Amino acid sequence: MVTEADCKKLALLVSWLEADFAKPANSRVPPERRTQSIATFDRLQKTWGRLESGQVNEWLYTKVPFKGFPAGKVLVLPAVEVDSYIMVPVLRLVVDDLREHKVLRAYFAVYLAKSPGHKWLGLRFESPEGGPQERGSHNFHHMQFCSEMEAFEGITPIGLPTSSVALPLGANDCVQLLLCALATFYGISVLDQLRRHSKPEIRALWETVKAMPLFGTSEGEFSALAQA
């Protein structure tokens, strides 16, 4: 379920991703692979349209509600070295307005660059798909694989089971769901950046982090985990 309050927090979180985090300089790769990771980042950014700051500001400073990214817009996130791969997550957020409630779907087309070839891994992080009184196999915050990526025209992910694999996540709402997704790729230290942010409205998202059932609730406990 996606509430109006959730949408405001999602817009803040997306503003941080767009303005501060989704930069090639934030790539987590060894120095000898940095040139390759920046080239990969730039190439992927040209493949689709980048979510623009003007759209984000519209969500933040006008009455236009957050309804997910506009058609064709994505955020290319920093590269990470995983084993022998350079992994680059590409994010697209969709808010589906169902019968009685809304569902957040965070689609990730994950580029796996490995010489001599490359592959795509498709993931989607979703809030509960049933209503408050409904029971269903996916009526909880979860992650699934994607074999088809309509949100990312022109790519075919690795073929993996989709509907029958729904991994539960430690999230109480759709904002925590997106935070879980970021921690999946970058570890929980990435969430500590919210606590240390210069803008108070972004720092306020730290309260959402502390409320996540996945982590300790005290600042000291989280900092210890983030630095581990």
Q: Can you describe what's shown?
A:
The structure is a single chain. The chain has helices spanning 4-21, 34-47, 53-61, 174-186, 192-195, 200-203, 206-210, 219-227, and strands at residues 49-50, 73-76, 80-82, 85-97, 102-114, 117-126, 142-146, 167-168. The protein is α+β, with helices and mostly antiparallel strands and 228 residues long. Strands 1, 2, 3, 4, 5, 6, 7 and 8 form an eight-stranded mixed beta sheet that branches.
The proportion of residues forming helix, as a percent range, comes to: 25-40%
Q: Output mean pLDDT.
A: 84
Terminal residue distance:
33 Å
Look at the helices and sheets and give the structural class. alpha+beta
Round the Cα radius of gyration to an integer and report it. 17 Å
Give the low-confidence spans.
none
Shape: globular
Helix count equals 8
Order of helices and strands: HHEHEEEEEEEHHHHH
β content, as a range?
15-25%
Largest sheet: 8 strands, mixed
Number of strands: 8
